[in-house]
Structures are given as structure tokens and as C-alpha cells.
Amino acid sequence: MAQECRLGLLLALLLPVVGASMPGTVVRLNEAALSYVSEIGKAPLQRALQVTVPDFLDRSGERLRPTRIQILNVHVPHIHLKFIAGFGVRLSAAANFTFKVFRGPEHLELLLPVVLQADVHVAQGSIGTPVVSISTCFSLFDNAIVLDGSNSMAPALLVPLQQHINAVLRDKLCLSIASLVQDLNVHMGTVIGLTPVGPESQIRYSVVNVPNITNDYISLDLNAVLFLLGKPIVLPLDVTPFVLPEHVGTIGAMATVGLSQDLFDSALLLLQKAGALNLDITGQLKSDDNPLNTSMLGQLIPEVARQFPEPMPVVLKARLGATPVAMLRTNNATLRLQPFVEVLVPASNSAFQSLFSLDVVVTLSLQLSVSKVKLQATTSVLGDVQLTVASSNVGFIDTDQVHALVGTVFEKPLLDHLNALLGIGIGLPSVVNLQYVTPEVSVYEGYVVISGGLLYQR
């Protein structure tokens, strides 16, 4: 069963198992992925074809003589996989079986070349997973060869012996392949499980359409739903289905993944609702180079100096009321935040006294990257941080003067906070033990494309 599970997972590489259309993700596996699976699938297939052969009953004498047959080795020198448009994948494999035939006190070894072919149908399951099944399967047998060093066998006995072996393998080999494919459906059930995004948030992928299969690739539209505290994140506006253009991504890539604007919007809405984008910045009085205290503010705002003749630490509380906006343009991804920042000082009763509040607008550049199976991002500020006074308990505030102080103090902690948060990443379409290698991320108008290789690690 362990061998079947491993090969089942290898066959899973043939299938784009996760993505979305509302919000939209499309996963497309290309011919290069089939070549990769063909290579790494040889060893597991060899182990799976190690079936048992019952004794052969020799009828050449006056009485029946049982002859034990054992498979010594199965060597698969070649596997070829190709897409069947509108259907699935065709598996063709060449296998050489080495048998030991125990006849009396001596034995002989036979080499039997076999060609296997199976058509795997790919469909959409009722619970939102891809479902695979064997449509046709057959084996073609060449003549058995008596290996050098073995005792000879009369043709009159060799012919019925091979007929016996062929009859057994004809059924058992296809049953083994069918079992592997059926076992794959069990693994597909894990695809729709919840994958953690943060401490209280998850993402779940499921198939929403029948697979689109051409002679060059297999593609699925999938639904990616983000959850916060068990509740789905729902976009406030209707979204349109996402269609991944035909010719995008790196030429020769195994996998091409398209992520629509809607997926980014959902992720940002989740972060906002979770409060993950909120930020508290506290000044430290003992730090000589930290300007975040009442003495520094008092030099710019006289009322602050009057109310607080002794230096007091200042706290900036940034709270995100408006939903962050991600903008995807060709070769350019940006993030726009509009936090409400309250400037506070601690009061004697452990509460805080508000000095003033600011409406802030900051535009950030997003640099997207992929690590194994996660999409990550880092940010940097584009242009100036925009500040406007929302309210004041310390009289008139010259925004230009405050901008230099508050903007400098606010910018670095904000970037540190966002980069740590976005560095956690969000899970991309994958299966167990599979990750992306040498991925390239490209930004287009309204969507992002990830293309690259795949690595399966047992």
C-alpha cells in the first residue's frame, strides 16, 4: 500500500489540483510536467508491478507437476505520458520482467518484455476534487527469452509456461495500475482541506469546473476561499470568472499558475478583518536617537510642550478602517493603505490621552516571490507618506512640520511589520511533498502568473 501511495502521489503531478475562479486561480500543467513524472515515476512503478504469479501446472508428463514461478526483478526503462484532449492522460510504459522458474532441483531464468498502456480519465468530483479513473488498460507481451547460464527448456514446455505467465500478468498488471489510480483519489481528498494562512485564518481550494485538457496541457479553474475564525471572506462586489490567457508564463515551464486580482483582494480583506495590519509604535525615552516623545513634539506643537513639561513617551496607534487596495499593472504591483493614526501619551491612570489623530495614505511597491509552496511579498514605500490632521486636542498643527517627524517614525516600523506579515505567505496550489522550484513571478494587468518547475520529495 505504501508503494501504491507513493506512485499515486507521483501521478497527482499530472493534475492541477487547486486554484480558483471566484476569487480566481487557474493551474495549468504543461508537457514538461509529464516528462518529469515519467522520469521520477519509474522506480515506484517497478515496485508496484512486483505481483505474485501462481504455480504453473506442467501437464507434459504422466502426472501434473507444479512449477513455482517467482518475479526476481521488474525494470521499467521507459515511461511515456501524453495528454488526450478532452479526456485525460495516456500512460505507456515498457517493462522487462525477470522470472525464476523452479523446475526440479534446478531452475532457469526468463526475461519477458511487456508493453503497458492505460488511459486515465480526469473529471470533476462531487466534493470539489479532481477524480481519476482507468478507462482502458492492456498489456502486450513479447516472446520470453531464456537468459544465458540458465538450463534450457524444451519449446513444448516454454510455450505453455509463457502462456500461463501472460494470462496472469494480463489481469494483475492492469489491476495494479487501476489500484494506484483509485488510491490517488484518496489523496485528492486532502486537496480541499484547510491550509493555515495565519493563527486564525485558512485557505481552501476546490475544483469548480471540469478540467480543460488539450494536447499541450491540462488546466483547472478552482475556487479559493479564505476563512477567518471559520467564516468565509466574501468580497463586497460580484467578481467575474478569471481566464488565464493561452500564452503566458515561461516557455518550457512544468507549471503555470494564474492568480487573479480577486484572490489578492480577498487576502487583503482577510488581513484587515483579522486586525493583522494594525500597528502600535511606542517611543522609548532612553533612546537618544528616537524622536517619538513629547519633548520632540513640543518643539513643533507649543501646546504639547505646555501640557507635558517633562518628557513622556508617545504611542502611535495605526488602525486600518479602509480596505487595502492591491493594484496589478503590467510589471508593477502596488499596495495602497489608508490607516487612521492616533498619537497618544500614557495618562496617570494607565489609560491614554489623545493628542491628535491623522489620516494617512501610503503607497507601497510589492515585490512578489515564491518559496516552496507559498506566495510571499516584501514592500517598500513609493513616494511620500501623505498625512492630514483628522482631529487635534493640542490646537493648531502644522502638517508640514509634523510630517517629517511622524512620517520618519511611522515608515520603518510599518515596513518591518508588513514585511514580516507578508513574508509568512499564502499557500499556493500543491499536493503533498510537492513544491515549486525556480519559479518566476510575472505581473500582468489584473493578474499574476507564476511559472517554473516542480520538485517531488519522498
Please outline the helices and strands.
Layout: H1 2-12, E1 20-21, E2 24-30, H2 31-40, H3 42-48, E3 56-58, E4 65-84, E5 88-103, E6 106-124, E7 130-141, E8 145-146, H4 155-188, E9 195-198, E10 201-207, E11 212-213, E12 217-228, E13 231-232, E14 255-260, H5 261-274, E15 279-282, H6 294-300, H7 302-307, E16 315-320, E17 325-329, E18 332-337, E19 339-346, E20 352-371, E21 374-392, H8 399-424, E22 426-427, E23 434-444, E24 447-456
Antiparallel strand pairs: 1-2, 2-12, 2-14, 3-4, 4-5, 5-6, 6-7, 6-8, 9-10, 10-12, 11-12, 12-13, 14-24, 15-16, 16-19, 17-18, 18-20, 19-20, 20-21, 21-22, 23-24
Descriptive overview:
- The chain has 458 residues and is an alpha+beta fold.
- It contains 8 helices and 24 strands.
- Residues 3-21 have low confidence and may be disordered.
- Strands 1, 2, 9, 10, 11, 12, 13, 14, 23 and 24 form a 10-stranded antiparallel beta sheet that branches. Strands 15, 16, 17, 18, 19, 20, 21 and 22 form an 8-stranded antiparallel beta sheet that branches. Strands 3, 4, 5, 6, 7 and 8 form a 6-stranded antiparallel beta sheet that branches.
